[in-house]
Amino acid sequence: MVCSAPPAPGGVAAISAPHRSAGLHRPRAGEPAPVPQLGRRWGTVVFMVVIHALALVALLPRFWSLPAVAAFLVLYWVTACLGVTIGYHRLLSHRAFRVPRWLERVFATCGALSCQHGPIDWVGLHRHHHKFSDTEVDHHTSLRGFWWSHMGWMFEEIPAIGSVPRLTGDLARDPYHRWLNRWFLVLQLPLAALLFWIGTATGAGGWALVLWGIPLRLVVVYHCTWLVNSATHCWGSVAYPSGDHSRNNPWVAALTFGEGWHNNHHTFPHSARHGLQAGQIDLTWQHIRLLRALGLATQVRLPAEGRQGVA
User: Fold this and answer.
1) Are 259 and 228 in contact (CB under 8 A)?
2) For the chain, domain boundaries
3) Burial (CB count <10 Å: 0-12, 13-18, 19+), residue 66
4) I need a labelling partner for 28 at 20 to 30 A (CA). Which of 67, 93, 192, 200 fits?
């Protein structure tokens, strides 16, 4: 299925996108030139097959328990909300607000536990998406259909990865972000050990907590996050002329702590608040409001007065 929406005004973005994208791949002085790689990413394919199979195993009756469900829900909040929507997205990608460095690293660690790349690669690719949204060089453009924008793009080598260094200089200066970017997969091991110990100590079952807390949780977080790339570029309402296919989708917003107000976000990408109209619940924004009230979030960015359409 190919998603459709009004093209960018005058087609300017679509015409100039390849030229602008190519500029991001030019190395800085002293840097090696990127070597383009094309083809199937078989490691990712195998990983996704295995993680989805283990998620199905977690749903077997023998692994059901209230502690397992509780572990799933807590880790869903920690990784999807604190990690992806607050940490990777609104804080690191768009710098919609500022927090102390220790807290930024906490949020980045929660994001790394979502197993969606380390912070540098995630942020770089997301910034690239915003620069070229729904053009031919957007790595998960909806022009190639729902499957591609949802997850198909991850199974192929994408040229956009070559632009990451130029788009993430602010993150690359932090050695902890560099460490997370390299070792994010390894973080699942101490988490698995902790879950197994808790499950064994409480009698809930070590493997039950591991299966619900890692593969099942990862798969659900994956698909909910990916719906922001796919569903919100296909279905929903358009409040602003953002120049791409982004739409406001309430059911995606409900699954992703407010990320489904995607047309609002693409119109005001640096806003800490995505739910701008009356009735648009944005739980991530409520977390940021709490951080601001506690004095932990500063320089909170919002749309200019009168432009956001808040009732």
Assistant:
1) yes
2) 40-293
3) exposed
4) 93
Question: Which residue has tokens 């536990």?
Answer: 113
From 5, 113, 78, 74, select the one nearest 212 (Cα to Cα). 74
Torsion sign over Cα 232, 237, 243, 245: positive
Between CA 309 and CA 277 the distance in angstroms is: 6
Distance of CA 60 to the CA centre of its chain: 29
Distance CA 132, CA 158 (A): 14
The C-alpha atoms of residue 141 and residue 155 are separated, in whole angstroms, by: 14
Alpha carbon 267 to its chain centroid, in Å, reads: 18
- The encoded tokens of residue 247 equal 């739409």
Q: How far apart are CA 308 and CA 239, in angstroms?
A: 10
Q: CB count, 10 Å around CB of 231?
A: 23
pTM, two decimal places: 0.89
Euclidean distance between CA atoms 228 and 150, whole angstroms? 8
Give the number of other Cβ atoms within 10 Å of residue 20's Cβ: 13
Rounded Cα gap, residues 218 and 206, in angstroms: 18
Please identify which residue in the block is written with the tokens 């840097």. Answer: 31
- Residue 15: HSE in the Cβ half-sphere, 13 Å Cα cutoff: 5
Q: CB neighbours of 23 closer than 8 A, spacing ≥ 6?
A: none
Q: Do residues 251 and 228 lie in contact, with contact meaning Cβ atoms separated by under 8 Å?
A: no
